[in-house]
Structures are given as C-alpha cells and as structure tokens.
C-alpha cells in the first residue's frame, strides 16, 4: 500500500519532531518542579493558619458527552506572615496531583483541618511562593521520566521511520538493483 507523499511527509518528518517538542515541555516542567521542590527544603519557615480545607473536584469530558472523568484535588488555603506582610498560600507541595480516588484527596485535606496551625515554608526572595510540605515528591520525577521516554521515542521515530516508510517507487527501485537479496 502506497502512502500519499503529504501523509508520508507528516508521518516521517513532522510527527517525530512534534513528539520531541511535546516531550521537551514535559522535561521542562519536570526540571522546573524538581528544582523548586529541592530548593524548598532549604527555605525558612513561619507559623501559619489553615483558612480552609477540603476537596476540589474537576470533571472533564472527552469527545462524547457519555464519557467523562472526575479528578479530586486536596484544596488547602493557608495564611501566614513574613516580615509583617500578610500572605495567602494554596500549594501543599511541589508535584501535587489530582487523583481519581476522592478518599486519597480527602485524607490529604484532613491532615490540614480548618483553623489548624501549620508550618509554612516560603521562598526568601519571593515570600508569596510557599509550600506546606517541602521537598520532592514523585510527580516532578514522573514528568522528567515521561518527557525522557517520549523524547527517546520521538528521536527513534525521526531516525528510523524514513527507512521504514518508503515510497513504492523507492521499494521497486531497490528490488530491481542487482545487489538486492
């Protein structure tokens, strides 16, 4: 079966590099999150108070209205002060993620009941940047791993797809060569 030249060009020359570009975004997000999470381990901390705590749910639907999924996020808002300036934070940790399990999100939120005193870690150069749990979790590393995997696949496609998807004319010419076996 012969693939039209335009489709072959997209499959062989465009798609692999779009995959690498998409993977680069994952890698960039992962590096950014890992750096911030690692730096947060050295941040100073102050006492803060939980203003609100609960579970936020986000429902997304795919192409058809029949198919939808709900993701649950622990939602914690806390107040703190640095140098007499009042701030409000929402980040529990770097690498937070939603889950399809509402119980997991509820368990995280339950660890920060409304009105509770909490330790807030803040970036010294930008006190608005804060977390309740400093350090790296698994999600920033997941972005790096997925980005690296997609980049590898994209680079392999860029290297080998041109050889795999050749035009009928190229195949026929190769078959007619005397050294072809």
Question: How are the SSEs placed, and which strands pair?
Answer:
Layout: H1 5-40, E1 45-61, E2 68-82, E3 85-89, H2 102-110, E4 117-123, E5 126-131, H3 138-164, H4 168-176
Antiparallel strand pairs: 1-2, 1-4, 2-3, 4-5
Provide a descriptive summary of the structure in words.
The chain has 181 residues and is an alpha+beta fold. It has a domain at 38-135. It is 45% helix and 28% strand. It is built from four helices and five strands, in the order αβββαββαα. It has a five-stranded antiparallel beta sheet. Strand 1 (45-61) and strand 2 form a beta hairpin. Helix 1 (5-40) packs antiparallel against helix 3 (138-164). The longest helix is centred in the first third of the chain and has 36 residues, at 5-40. It is elongated. It starts with a helix and ends in a 5-residue tail after the last helix.
The number of E-state strands comes to: 5
Broad structural category: alpha+beta
Rg measurement, Å: 25 Å
Main sheet summary: 5 strands, antiparallel
Range of helix content: 40-55%
Topology as a string of helices (H) and strands (E): HEEEHEEHH
Share of β-strand residues:
25-35%
Number of H- or I-type helical stretches: 4
Gross morphology is: elongated
Report the uncertain regions.
none
Query: Span from first to last CA?
Result: 21 Å
With strands numbered from the N-terminus, the spatial order across the biggest sheet is 3-2-1-4-5
Mean pLDDT: 85
